[in-house]
Design brief:
Length: about 375
């Protein structure tokens, strides 16, 4: 299924704006059901005049497209009925969670049955605690996080929005909602939330952030301050605001106190510096990285940093991408390496393969979308 546009270049790349091309929507170029339901949910989350205008434009464009289509003896389908052109059948429009930076509808990702069952069990536990005390900040955060792990990103955003209303000075609420704004390609909103979180933590002591998806050692590898700056840097990076991304990643580097957080920050910081043509600074960033680092979970980022240093070859790097998280990270890092070394077509091929074969919620996938929308 897709919201088709004639050119990625004519669409603002840094946020979800398919309405920009709605004047071209005739003959079924857009699935207006999905677009309508998605925008309506955004309006319910955060009512503002822009959302009202977008929703009105979608309804008008959908009506115009129908009016200009050939007449039919079949009764008109409701505006919320969408059609999946890939599977040749109707789809559940409530499953649409986002519109990609290339204009395609993004549905709740499919999960392995055992994984889904475990996530649902954890969600039920989290919801019971939340229902027992809806004002408790910790219970609310876990309810939102567990909701997101099932791919219900818009519902998770709604939970964190409630949390912000109840706890407007709690940086964790903005950190988690900002993360899911990135997931749903609402980059401007992500930047707003994460910038707010960064301001709220000034002068405060950092704290370990418990893992929702524990690693094999059951050892958390990130902190609140780290996650705020890491995701803020990512939101700027995806938006093409590399100078601001550099500032955020430098702040992130200062709170990257263990090997896993260090290699993760180093990867994004190195790429940012290379894209800014600061090659000497990029080389210096790699100096602390070594093969002997005790990595718990960020294996893809570790191998990428070693690859950037020239300590492993491309074949070894590709073989390191063993998990659903590492694979898009490695593919994106490798594609980007080809790009800033002057091999644009190789980068494009790598990004297209990544998008075709990876989970759309991963950062590598989102970054590939962002780059393709600008190339």
């Amino acid at each position: 299924m897709s919201f088709r546009t004639t050119s990625a270049a004519c669409r603002p790349p840094n946020s979800y704006r398919p309405w920009f091309d709605l004047h071209k929507a005739v003959g079924g170029k857009y699935d207006f059901g999905d677009l309508f339901v998605y925008e309506r949910r955004r309006l319910l989350q955060e009512p503002d005049m822009k959302s009202v205008i977008r929703l009105a434009m979608i309804l008008f464009a959908g009506w115009s497209a129908c009016a200009q289509s050939p007449s039919s003896t079949e009764p008109a389908a409701p505006v919320v009925q969408a059609f999946d052109r890939e599977n040749d059948g109707p789809v559940r429009t409530e499953d649409v969670q986002a519109v990609s930076l290339l204009g395609t509808a993004l549905h709740i990702p499919k999960l392995d049955d055992k994984v889904r069952a475990k996530h649902e069990q954890n969600l039920n536990i989290a919801k019971a605690k939340y229902d027992a005390d809806p004002k408790d900040a910790d219970a609310l955060i876990w309810y939102g996080r567990r909701t997101a792990y099932l791919g219900r990103y818009l519902a998770a955003i709604e939970v964190f929005t409630k949390g912000i209303a109840l706890h407007p000075d709690d940086p964790r609420m903005y950190r988690h909602r900002g993360h899911r704004y990135i997931t749903t390609r609402q980059l401007d909103r992500a930047i707003d939330d994460l910038s707010r979180a960064a301001n709220l933590i000034k002068g405060t002591k950092d704290q370990i952030e418990p893992d929702g998806l524990p690693n094999k050692r059951n050892t958390p590898t990130s902190t609140l301050h780290f996650n705020i700056f890491y995701h803020l840097g990512l939101a700027y990076y995806l938006s093409g605001k590399l100078t601001l991304a550099l500032d955020a990643y430098n702040n992130c580097l200062e709170v990257s106190k263990n090997p896993d957080s260090l290699v993760a920050t180093t990867h994004w910081l190195y790429m940012t510096l290379r894209l800014l043509k600061k090659e000497d600074a990029a080389k210096r960033v790699l100096e602390p990285i070594s093969e002997k680092m005790d990595i718990i979970e960020s294996f893809g980022y570790h191998k990428l940093a070693l690859f950037y240093k020239g300590e492993i070859d491309e074949k070894t790097l590709r073989e390191s991408a063993l998990s659903w998280i590492d694979d898009p990270a490695v593919k994106y890092g490798l594609g980007n390496w080809h790009y800033y070394n002057g091999r644009k077509q190789e980068a494009v091929n790598q990004f297209k393969d990544l998008i075709k074969n990876s989970n759309w919620a991963t950062f590598g996938h989102i970054a590939a979308e962002a780059d393709l929308s600008r190339l």
